[in-house]
Write a structure and sequence with these properties.
Oligomer: single chain
Radius of gyration: 19 Å
Structural class: alpha+beta
Strand order of the largest sheet: 1-2-5
Mean pLDDT: 93
Number of strands: 5
Strand content: 25-35%
Low-confidence stretches: none
Helix content: 40-55%
CATH architecture of the largest domain: Irregular
CATH topology of the largest domain: HU Protein, Chain A
Largest sheet: 3 strands, antiparallel
Order of helices and strands: HHEEEEEH
Number of helices: 3
Number of domains: 2
CATH superfamily of the largest domain: IHF-like DNA-binding proteins
Shape: extended
Amino acid sequence: MTKADVIEEISRQTGIEKVAVSATVESFFKVIKDAMSDGENVYVRGFGSFHLKKRARKTARNISKNTTIIIPAHFIPHFKPSKMFVERVRDNNRIEE
């Protein structure tokens, strides 16, 4: 499912025009990106949390040039689904053996 599919489904379920739904979805993503860029975590009850994970400094190899490079410590965004979310997906997607 793509973002366009999500927008279309929300529009269909609520009766709100796609343009308005699209603006809302884009604003939601912008708020999350801005908050995480500022070092804040975002918690959405019943859905999950968006938080920053620290990656330690490490040494890597550039194989083509046969050189060593240092990758500095940095943060990456991470999503952790809520317990309710995980249970719902698990219950609805059983693997038949």
